[in-house]
UniProtKB/TrEMBL annotation:
Function: Catalyzes the reduction of fatty acyl-CoA to fatty alcohols.
A single MF term (Gene Ontology): alcohol-forming very long-chain fatty acyl-CoA reductase activity
GO CC list: peroxisome
Record keyword Glycosyltransferase present: no
Family: Belongs to the fatty acyl-CoA reductase family.
Protein name: Fatty acyl-CoA reductase
EC number: 1.2.1.84
Keywords: Lipid biosynthesis, Lipid metabolism, NADP, Oxidoreductase
One Pfam family it belongs to: NAD_binding_4
One GO biological process term: long-chain fatty-acyl-CoA metabolic process
Organism field: Penicillium angulare
Residues covered by the Thioester reductase (TE) domain: 12-304
């Protein structure tokens, strides 16, 4: 399947992010695209510094010096991303694949801000992509939790989420998997977006209990994109990739590869480690949250390989990139005891379950931000199961599509948790040596990863 990427011209946004860097590395280590345009904020030097932090110096250098990469500096916040018409025209003439990963993962920002940073730039980019004569696929990286409004609506302790779009009925307070009617699925989406711009709210946002404006903005973007590609008769060119909570790599590019503030579970762990209380209030409507709360954490290489194989195989619509029911973790059965072992305080703490709104100030701060503690989602991933069944043996062994005994216990997790502790500690004026002494980071693997293969056929460029 890697041959699909031979000689392709790709536009990748967020190529210095956790997922974007891993996509870039994976394509360049397996295939020979003609060119990858990286749309990055900042400068070439900033990109090099970010890659040097995330990767070993030799890989960072081999990325920055790779003749197949062209860096284009632009910011999602600026009109047209700050690029001139002629820059866009040049991209439009050659790009065949757009992979849009850039996005803030901000769980506290309001709807207006999320509209400006998620919805508007994505719709602008999709519009540009739809004018590319050679466009084969536009990939939008959303989140599986864009449907987490389903938790408050459900009755079961485990909420099944289909690999599909959902419709909204505000009169009846219902949200259901979309059927074949695109008219119905996309109905009112444009007015919803207009309402955010005018009033900073919408009927759907008011009616349904979305945990974060971030998730709702991704949900609305998915429906707006669906409508745009449908109206332009280009549904087969449109893929939405929906990761659950992304975890450090298990193997690729190297075990432990991660960007600290892009691994939400590391922030949750650090917040619990630093809180001195004896009782932590969490919200759940579940009957037995201690035993039934789960966390779908997916190692980053699975997100990357699912995205790249579905893209290559022509899948369109929604794809979940998740660990799924097979490999998700019990939050309080597995992760919580690990956190407790590391706490610097001599007393034990007890999670206390409250039937509260997940914005209530009675809840522990970690739960008010990371609202998933106390929920359980069963994300369908049958599209990947079906695709896997049709791969050759060689492709099956080349690709990493399923989580295999994901146990976030290794040394690699310590480094990013320490990074988050240092961030929180700084806000509370706790000297870094205190944090480092109670929570040593351990050795980070990774320095041994080989640099990218040298491009021997530069003459094609
Ligand atoms: N991490 C997760 O657990 C998770 C879970 C579900 C879905 N996702 C989705 O996966 C995608 C990638 O996330 P990630 O984990 O790779 O996050 P990340 O490490 O924070 O990367 C996000 C990328 O977006 C770029 N970006 C943010 N704001 C920008 C702006 N105003 N202009 C230009 N670029 C901007 C960042 O640039 P800088 O490098 O300059 O910061 C970075 O390269 C996102 O769409 C996210 O919503 C992530």
């Amino acid at each position: 399947m890697w041959e699909f990427y031979t000689d392709k011209t790709i536009l990748l946004t967020g190529g210095t992010g956790f997922v974007g860097t891993a996509i870039l590395y994976r394509i360049l280590s397996q295939a020979t695209p003609r060119r990858i345009f990286l749309l990055l904020r900042g400068s070439q030097q900033k990109a090099q510094n970010t890659w040097a932090d995330l990767l070993s110096d030799n890989i960072a250098d081999s990325l920055i010096q790779n003749p197949r990469i062209t860096i284009v500096c632009g910011n999602l916040k600026s009109p047209n991303f700050g690029l001139s018409d002629s820059d866009w025209q040049c991209l439009q003439e050659s790009v065949e694949i757009v992979i849009h990963t850039a996005s803030p993962i901000n769980l506290v920002a309001n709807l207006k801000r999320m509209s400006e940073l998620v919805i508007s730039p994505t719709m602008f980019l999709a519009n540009v992509a739809l004018q590319m004569p050679e466009l084969q696929k536009f990939v939008f990286v959303s989140t599986a939790y864009s449907n987490s409004h389903l938790w408050p609506l459900g009755k079961e302790d485990d909420v099944f989420v289909k690999e599909s779009f959902y419709t909204f009925d505000t009169d009846r307070g219902l949200s259901e998997p979309a059927n074949e009617s695109l008219e119905n699925t996309t109905k009112g989406a444009k007015e919803e977006w207009e309402s955010i711009r005018k009033y900073q709210t919408t009927d759907i946002w008011e009616t349904f209990d979305f945990p974060w404006a971030y998730g709702y903005a991704k949900n609305l973007t998915e429906r707006l994109l669906l409508e745009q590609f449908w109206r332009r008769n280009a549904l087969e060119k449109f893929l939405i990739v929906k990761p659950s909570i992304i975890a450090p790599a298990q193997s690729c590019p190297f075990p432990g590869y991660a960007r600290a503030n892009s691994v939400p579970a590391a922030g949750f762990t650090a917040a619990i480690l630093m809180s001195p209380g004896r009782h932590f209030n969490f919200a759940s409507r579940g009957s037995d949250p201690l035993n039934n709360s789960t966390l779908d954490e997916v190692p980053v290489e699975i997100v990357v390989d699912r995205l790249l194989v579905h893209l290559a195989r022509g899948t369109s619509g929604v794809v979940h990139t998740v660990s799924g029911k097979r490999e998700r973790l019990s939050l309080f059965g597995f992760i919580w005891p690990m956190i407790m072992k590391e706490r610097p305080f001599p007393w034990k703490i007890k999670p206390v379950w409250k039937s509260l709104d997940w914005n209530s100030t009675d809840l522990h701060l970690a739960n008010r931000i990371f609202k998933l503690a106390g929920t359980s989602f069963d994300f369908e991933d049958t599209k990947t199961e079906r695709l896997y069944a049709n791969l050759s043996q060689r492709e099956k062994s080349d690709l990493i599509l399923f989580t295999n005994e994901h146990k976030p216990t290794g040394e690699e997790r310590r480094g990013i948790v320490q990074d988050m502790l240092l961030v929180f500690g700084k806000k509370q004026h706790i000297p870094s040596f205190i944090i480092k002494s109670f929570f040593p980071a351990g050795e980070m693997p990774g320095a041994e990863v080989p640099p990218l293969p040298n491009s021997k056929d530069n003459e094609k460029l």
